[in-house]
Design brief:
GO terms for molecular function: oxidoreductase activity; zinc ion binding. This is Threonine dehydrogenase-like Zn-dependent dehydrogenase. Helix 6 (212-219) links the parallel strand 11 (204-208) and strand 12 (224-226). This protein has two domains: 2-162 and 335-390, Quinone Oxidoreductase, Chain A, domain 1 (Alpha-Beta Complex), CATH 3.90.180; 164-332, Rossmann fold. Helix 4 packs across helix 12 and helix 7 (232-238) runs parallel beside helix 10. The chain has helices at 39-46, 94-97, 154-157, 163-174, 189-200, 212-219, 232-238, 260-270, 274-283, 290-298, 320-325, 337-349, 370-378, and strands at 2-8, 11-16, 28-37, 62-69, 81-83, 108-109, 114-116, 135-138, 146-148, 181-185, 204-208, 224-226, 247-250, 304-307, 329-332, 363-366, 387-390. It has 391 residues and is α/β, with parallel strands linked by helices. The chain has 13 helices and 17 strands. The chain is globular.
Length: 391
Amino acid sequence: MKALTWQGKRSVSVEDVPDPSIQEPTDAIVRITSTAICGSDLHLYEVLGPFMNKGDVLGHEPMGIVESVGSSVTNLQPGDRVVIPFNISCGHCWMCNNGLQSQCETTQVHQQGTGASIFGYSELYGSVPGGQAEYLRVPHADYGPVKVGNDLPDERYLYLSDILPTAWQAVQYAAVPDGGTLAVFGLGPVGQFSSRVGKYLGHRVIAVEPVPERRAMAERHGIETVDFTKDVGDVLREMTDGRGPDAVVDAVGMEAHNSPLGAFAQNAVGLLPDAIAKKAIETAGVDRLTVLHACIDAVRRGGTVSLSGVYGGTASPMPLLTMFDKQIQTRMGQCNVRRWTDELLPIVEDPSDPLGVMDLKTHEVPLDEAPEAYKTFQKKQDGCIKVVLKP
C-alpha cells in the first residue's frame, strides 16, 4: 500500500509499505477514505524528529471502511464506516473507566514513561503506524473506533478522530462560568473549534490570532477576534471590564511564532545527534512560550488556563510567581477522545451543523500530494487552515 512516511526533518514522502494485517484478536483493518494533517504532525516534521525513525508512517486523524476484524471484535463488521480516535485505548482499565482514555493503562508506553499509544506519533507514543495511508491496522478495535452512518460526507465525522473532541475538552477544562468570557489563543483547527464550541455553549468568545484569513474564518461563526500583539493582554482586559477573560484556551503549543528564544532552542536541538537531542528535549526548555505567557498574563485573577496545544520541554521556564499571585488554575493533557465522542456525534450529525464542521477544510489533496501539503500547512500559505488527504 501507499503511505506517507517520515524521512527526516521537514522531509516526508509517499512510499510503498507492507499492507497491515490482523495481529491480535481485537484488531481491525480499515481502508482509509479520509485522513487529515494535524498541527501536532508539524511537531514531528520539525521539533520531535529525534524520536522518529526513517520510514515511520505518519497520521492520527483517519476514518474509513472496515475491511476485516479479529475474532474478538463483535461490535464491528466488514463494511462498517468508522472514525478512528488518535489515542489507542482499551476501554476496560481503571483509566478508561474513569474517562482518562489518553492514559490507558493497557497501551501506556512504559519504555518512554508516557501515556496511551498514539497512531503515527513517534517513539514517545509507541511508534504505531499511522493513518496517512491507504490502510490502517487498528488495535483494540473492540472499543476504539466510532461507528458512524453512511449518508453524510466524511468531513461531518472526520474531526471526531482528534481536533473536535480536543477542542471540546479544552473548553470543558476551561470551566467558563455562566455568562463568562473565553479567550482562545490561536485559530488553527483546534482553536477554530474551541471558539465555536465556546460559542455553542453560550459563552462570549474572543479569539487571538495574527493571520487575517484565520480571523476571518472565526468571524463567520460569530467569534470576536483580535490580532496577536505585544499588548494583547491589555486589549483583552479593556474588552472585559478591566479584569481579563474568565478563562483562556492555549490552542497553539510549543511552536508559537514570535518566540525567538524558543526558536533558537528548537533549532539548536535539531543540530544534535538523535541520542543527545532526545535527552535535551526530555530535560531542557525547548518550547516557544510567548503564547502561553500571554495567556497567563491575560486571564483574570482566579481564572483558568486550559492547554490544548502540545508542549514538549520539561524545563521550560514558567512565571510561577505570577500564576500563584493571580490564583490561576491550569488544566491540560492529551484529549480523552472516547470520553467525548458519544456526546459529540449527534452534534456533528445535526443538519444545521452548529459547530461548522463543514467550514474548516481549506485544502483537499490526494495522498500523493501530502509532502507539498505539509509545507503549505506549516508555512500557513495559501490560506491553509486544514488539509484533508484522500488516499
